[in-house]
Known about the structure:
The protein is of the alpha+beta class. Helix content is 40%, strand content 14%.
Amino acid sequence: MYLKFSDDDEVYSHVKYDAEEKCFCVISSKNVRLKCENYLKLNVEEDVEDYCFNILNTDILNRENDIFQVYDKQANVRLGWIFPIQALLSDEHDYAENTFFLKYAYIAIYLLLNNIDEENVRKSSEVLKITDFYSEDAIIFVLCKSNCKQINDFCYEDYIVDLFGHGYSCLPYSAMGEKDVYVEKRINIRRISKDVKEKIFIGEVFKSLLVQTDLLPLAKFHMLYQIIELLIGDIFSYEFTSFSKKISEDTNNLFDLKDELQKLTGEKYRVKELFNTYSRIDRILKDKLMDVCNEILKEASKKEKVDVGDSLYSVRCLVFHNYGSIPSEARELIKGINEIFEKVVIELLITFNISCLK
């Protein structure tokens, strides 16, 4: 850490837990101590270096009791705990005497203090407050490194998409849906498919671009559809490779293969294949997307569809190429489409399985 107040020559560079005072303090090179306010009877953890943290945001899960253990769903390994910073500033919540939470609270306070890097920004005070340096609405996700190492090729970035679906975002975001949390206060998050984890753009979408386009339904739909474009591009590459092999093995039937090639180059075909062959999405969720897509197609006097991929592609064509045909009062329906579309895109990114077919 590095902390120097504008009205003080002391430079605080160390964090230490005072067992007698039962609180953290920051210490200068001259051994001057500044206490940090504390409300909890912390459970000391000696190996704080085995932990790291990330700051997240949410508009629906920032109450004191919104404290959850976080597990990798596929591996059933506990990654850590996630909780509002407010849970560190109160002893009135349900976890104020929970031994395991109090250990993570100790770790969180240490990591937050040790992360401070500030000079001449504020004046000194008698007591150091964490919320002087972090937003009162901040969400702290503390991860245990040794637990994470149990997961092959662990990468925190692989969970950003599903965390977004659970209501947590890298930037403040006010468009989250209802949170589905197990009774035992456990969140199970999933990694994105290994077939898409190298696509940097996906991280950009879920870290910032969806937040930036939230108040512009048309722009948000376009951004979500960009993910579809990425996935169906991979489908084309995979199927065209198979098609090329077929040509080389059967040169006598090139004319008969032209219809197959034409089908492959069609975007609608690949969108339908994305939903029906290359991913595993709950039927209810697919039907919801199809229904909201058909609703706006109906309002625009377009033919309704009986396949989710077909209905989404039709809306894509309507929005991108014939937006003026949508009655002005019906354009609000795009918001409803985006709400379901966002959930569907998350499921697509997690279940996309083109490598399983190779």
